[in-house]
């Protein structure tokens, strides 16, 4: 049996999908237009491609774990992305190579996270906010820029201003291409399409990061030199550990790809959205703010560990962050492609068919989160048993390696803000509930805060 829906050539729904994905889900998934009554699996056509969309929480979880649904370049083809073109965001299934890359990336993040946050990010953030105390602050922009600056500093060092400016421009071109039509077109030195500019930016970035890896790689059998940054030390340590266990190590090219993943602006944008959205929700609820503020103030201010912050400083902040991730995931969908014919939840999915796992819909499924699934409520996580974990970072064998990075950095930053400022206000006119979803979720218009000690 085929899923409900219409994927005929003249029923392409790309425009509706990209303009208002929430309305599109209601209209596509249910004949009644009621999101709570939607079908968990349905057919449609996006960017001329025949797709199966998975929407309910349990269906999304099953799809994330389905071995025949492999990672695809669907964001390239369906959402006009450049990110997954090589190993930048979405890597094709490649056995041991994929496993090694994911493990090395995860280990690198865990080893270098505290150094990045407490040696670089927090001081930069405090410096920026001190200058803006009592004035309207675009928190998303400040956090995004401070994180990007901190990570790039780790990769190429805190100096080399000209080189940093060039890297910033390349990273912006690379990311911007994700929301442009995938047209590779260039007219000499006069003009090139945004997508082509993103491809060239990617190649220049990879070349730069390969040079960084070659310059900092320690000699065989030696420990990492004191000249390299913490992040690079972590990469080489993890690569050597993998080599000892598996008799081989990742190449310089793959290590450069990992540096590009870490430096890519999607990480600063994701964390910045999480911080700004969580802070907005806390600010809108006076009792929630007071509780989070009191918990943060009672925490030891000299904790220099993201894990320590998350465990000891504020349960309220942690739960607010989780609820924010549920309602507003950074990436609303996980793209897959069916590797072989498979029966999924009673439906026949043919080989080669695109499968779009709608994390946004799964996270708001009333069957899993109750009738208030579309509302922000920290209380839902305090019941026994609690609802299932949000699917915002995927799941199964292809869950996102950056989950710890996003969650722990966000908790640490918000805790520091609560310790430093006793009054938070939203600037009049800010709408913290109005979102755009592509290429990553963010407030449609800047939401500005006024922080005072």
Automatic annotation (TrEMBL):
Gene3D superfamilies linked: Cytochrome P450
Record carries keyword Metal-binding: yes
Example GO biological process: sterol metabolic process
Pfam families in the cross-refs: p450 (PF00067)
KW Ligase (keyword) present: no
Alphabetized UniProt keyword annotations: Iron, Metal-binding
A molecular-function term among this protein's GO annotations: iron ion binding
PANTHER family on file: CYTOCHROME P450 26, CYTOCHROME P450 26B1
Protein's UniProt name: Cytochrome P450
């Amino acid at each position: 049996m085929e899923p409900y829906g219409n994927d005929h050539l003249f029923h392409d729904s790309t425009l509706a999908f990209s303009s208002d994905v929430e309305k599109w889900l209601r209209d596509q998934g249910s004949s009644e237009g009621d999101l709570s009554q939607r079908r968990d699996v349905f057919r449609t056509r996006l960017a001329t491609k025949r797709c199966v969309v998975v929407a309910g929480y349990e269906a999304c979880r099953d799809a994330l774990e389905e071995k025949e649904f492999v990672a695809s370049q669907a964001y390239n083809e369906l959402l006009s992305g450049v990110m997954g073109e090589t190993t930048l965001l979405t890597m094709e299934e490649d056995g041991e190579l994929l496993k090694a890359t994911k493990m090395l990336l995860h280990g690198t993040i865990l080893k270098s996270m505290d150094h990045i946050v407490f040696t670089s990010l927090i001081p930069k953030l405090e410096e920026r906010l001190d200058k803006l105390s009592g004035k309207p602050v675009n928190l998303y922009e400040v956090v995004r820029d401070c994180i990007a600056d901190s990570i790039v500093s780790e990769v190429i060092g805190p100096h080399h201003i000209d080189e940093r400016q060039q890297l910033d421009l390349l990273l912006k071109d690379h990311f911007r291409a994700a929301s442009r039509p995938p047209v590779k077109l260039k007219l000499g030195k006069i003009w090139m399409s945004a997508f082509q500019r993103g491809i060239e930016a990617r190649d220049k970035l990879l070349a730069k990061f390969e040079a960084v890896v070659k310059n900092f790689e320690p000699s065989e059998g030696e420990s990492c030199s004191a000249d390299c940054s913490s992040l690079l030390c972590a990469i080489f340590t993890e690569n050597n550990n993998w080599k000892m266990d598996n008799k081989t190590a990742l190449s310089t090219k793959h290590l450069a790809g990992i540096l590009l993943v870490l430096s890519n602006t999607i990480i600063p944008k994701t964390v910045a959205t999480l911080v700004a959205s969580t802070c907005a929700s806390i600010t809108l609820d006076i009792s929630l703010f007071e509780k989070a503020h009191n918990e943060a103030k009672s925490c030891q201010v000299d904790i220099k560990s993201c894990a320590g912050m998350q465990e000891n400083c504020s349960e309220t902040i942690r739960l607010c962050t989780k609820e924010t991730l549920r309602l507003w995931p950074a990436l609303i969908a996980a793209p897959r492609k069916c590797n072989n014919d498979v029966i999924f939840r009673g439906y026949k999915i043919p080989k080669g068919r695109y499968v779009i796992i709608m994390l946004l819909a799964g996270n708001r499924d009333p069957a899993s989160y109750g009738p208030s699934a579309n509302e922000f409520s920290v209380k839902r996580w305090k019941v026994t048993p609690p609802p299932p974990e949000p699917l915002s970072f995927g799941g199964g064998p292809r869950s996102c390696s950056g989950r710890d990075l996003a969650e722990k950095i966000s908790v640490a930053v918000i805790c520091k803000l609560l310790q430093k400022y006793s009054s938070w206000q939203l600037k009049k006119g800010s709408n913290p509930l109005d979102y755009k979803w592509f290429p990553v979720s963010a407030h449609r218009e800047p939401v500005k805060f006024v922080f005072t000690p």
